[in-house]
């Protein structure tokens, strides 16, 4: 149930911020929050981070659907660990947030602009944090690095 709650919260915040940006800014408009450091800049991103795979909307939709299907299958089998549940919830919410944009308008709405990094959104932040949580669990916790075979596995 934590997965659904956290994912829903991420989706609501992501979509609300994107709606706010779209309703108050013209495409391409940029407003400084901290001059030359942090701006709110409304863009439509046709690709992934750094603009890679530009205009491959169907590819990104397929990847998101495969990710969601994988999580649906694996979630009951995941360890009862808060880091794993947090990471999975953030990842799923972020993936769905960007999936909604891709299906609805064919692009992802981005607006956080630090001027030294590609412009991004709330869903992107949650995806990165979710992956970081899962990587931390898998690489740095005793439970995640346990490779012993149990049960009928050989």
How much helicity do the residues have?
55-70%
List unreliable stretches of 5+ residues: none
Give the strand line-up of the largest sheet. Answer: 1-2-3
Q: Number of domains in the coordinates?
A: 1
Architecture blueprint of SSEs:
Blueprint: H1 2-24, E1 30-34, E2 38-45, H2 57-74, H3 82-105, E3 108-113, H4 122-140, H5 142-145
Antiparallel strand pairs: 1-2, 2-3
Describe, in plain words, how this protein is organized in 3D:
The protein is α+β, with helices and mostly antiparallel strands and 154 residues long. It has one domain (2-139). Helix content is 57%, strand content 12%. The chain has helices spanning 2-24, 57-74, 82-105, 122-140, 142-145, and strands at residues 30-34, 38-45, 108-113. The protein has a three-stranded antiparallel beta sheet with strand order 1-2-3. A hairpin with a 3-residue loop joins strand 1 and strand 2. Helix 1 packs parallel to helix 3 (82-105), helix 2 packs antiparallel against helix 3 and helix 3 runs antiparallel to helix 4. It is globular and about 50 Å long.
Give a quick rundown of the structure:
With 154 residues, this protein is of the alpha+beta class. The protein is built from 5 helices and 3 strands.
Task: Name its key features.
154 residues, 5 helices, alpha+beta, single chain
């Amino acid at each position: 149930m934590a997965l659904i709650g956290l994912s829903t919260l991420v989706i609501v915040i992501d979509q609300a911020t994107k709606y706010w940006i779209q309703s108050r800014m013209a495409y391409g408009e940029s407003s400084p929050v901290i001059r030359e450091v942090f701006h709110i800049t409304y863009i439509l991103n046709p690709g992934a981070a750094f603009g890679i795979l530009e205009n491959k909307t169907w590819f990104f939709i397929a990847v998101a659907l495969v990710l969601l299907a994988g999580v649906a299958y694996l979630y009951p089998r995941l360890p009862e660990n808060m880091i794993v549940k947090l990471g999975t919830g953030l990842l799923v919410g972020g993936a769905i947030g960007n999936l909604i944009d891709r299906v609805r308008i064919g692009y992802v709405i981005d607006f956080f602009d630090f001027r030294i990094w590609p412009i991004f959104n709330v869903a992107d932040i949650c995806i990165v944090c979710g992956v970081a949580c899962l990587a931390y669990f898998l690489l740095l916790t005793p439970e995640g690095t346990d490779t012993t075979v149990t049960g009928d596995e050989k």
